[in-house]
Amino acid sequence: MAIDNAKIESIEALRRAGIEPYPYSYHVTNHAKEIRDNFSEFEGKEVSIAGRAMQLRQMGGITFIDVQDRTGKIQGLIRNNDLDQKSLLVLTNSSIGDNLGIRGIVMKSKRGEISVSARELTMLSKTLRTLPNKWQGLTDTEARYRFRHVDLMMNREVLKTFEVRSKFMRHVRDALDSRGAIEVETPILQDLYGGASAKPFTTTYHTLDDKQMFLRISDELYLKRLIIGGAERVYEVSKDFRNEDADTTHNPEFTQVEYYEAYSDYETFMKMMEEMLSAFATNTFGSTKVEYQGETIDFAPPFARMYWVDELKKMSGIDVSSISDEDVKRINDAEGLGLKHPDRYHVADSLFDKYLKGKTLQPTFVLDFPTYMCPLTKTKRGNPLLAERFELYVGRMEVANSYSELTDPLYQRKMFEEQERARKKGDEEAPPFDEDFLNAIEYGMPPTAGIGISIDRPTMVFTNQTSIKEVILFPPMKSTPPNESLPPKESALDS
RNA sequence: GGGCCCGUAGCUCAGUUCGGUAGAGCAUCUGGCUUUUAACCAGGUGGUCGUGGGUUCGAUUCCCACUGGGCCCGCCA
Fold it and tell me: Could you identify the residue whose CA is nearest to the C1' atom of nucleotide B71?
């Protein structure tokens, strides 16, 4: 991707002839796909197309250029005899990678390729860089992420992936809007963080006496204030930030939609997720069935319900709803969980992973967690050992997490006190005591269901990707001095 | 944090077995060719072999460290 001095010479040649290689605009009348799909209507008519030259086949007085626009490719058929002086000069100074505009007549070449037979050729942007080769393209993962613009132009399925992501986000918004919810924005820069257990990113606000601030790890505590204020149904499409390692299903910066609905419980949201995901699959792919890594995932409702504490008891003989701190070490050893600092929470979590996670390829509500795993959740009606919480799994990945939210302010205060003690003992992930939030909830919060819907992971399923980095346009990369960005020769820049 | 694999031309890759001044295809440049589509034919340009150190008469090759990336594991509501 080095700068090519021959291309700079082309720029100079064009300018000498009074042709600007970086013009302001171009009137595009049609796109590649519509012309190809409706050839009989377009045949013989004049169109103007624009896009990037991806391939160029020159044979004396005739040149074929494959022009790629956002809908696909179409061939430009360019005969020197059909062109005026200016267009000819553009042609001789064109190369693969340039943005070109072609005005011409739609026709078929002798070999039957739908083409635009050029009457005028316009340089829309002269490239200085060389595109990857046309056979293998750009495949190096690191280069693809660091030079996503090149990845996008060479690997068009990447653009498709992000179109699906966009559609999914749009669909989630529409589904929540149709429930009468309002979309809100709450602070990303926060004095205090909370709503999850995670290490935060910190930053400094210089004009406020260099105050330390945090990037949010969740939206929960702000959205609940809006519920308390009487908004009833609110959601936020939120970038959250957690200062943790990345892997194929975790990114330190990720997107979820948090939604809170007053007077509802988690049962409401199970139905909502079934409708939301099955409708999306049907609208987007024409079926509730989606191929994922050689397996078929079916979003047709109802989704499976896994009462996992019962299920786990059947399979392992362990009832995690009632294990004591004394049991923990013994189970850790007997089950070979390998936890360094076993506690009830992590033992239960590991047992789920060991026995049950593998069974969640199909959309599955994993529900009713031990209360000790859910400090912000109401207990299950009729069983105080369990809490009303579900996680939705798809493709063996957690894609949503929902509670019947805790609304008892005195209990909430107790939980903050407990987390504060854990913090002082050195638990970096325990959220800090938040008196402002307690003040809010002390005004009385109506019964409320809350849910966090992942955007990244469902997009992985819908686009058949195994790495979260494939559904994030610019995944974080370690910094490295780019060694290929050499400046052009000075002589070329002077003129 | 641990293990395995990888980094050679703009891109995709050979070469390293057994150390001896670096190769192909595409791209690019020059010439030829007015219906090609991986166009073709002829010729040319292009490389601190990821970085630093060590061994050696000599290192892209062997050794060490570092760096960047991928996968697996650990961690992570």
Answer: A248
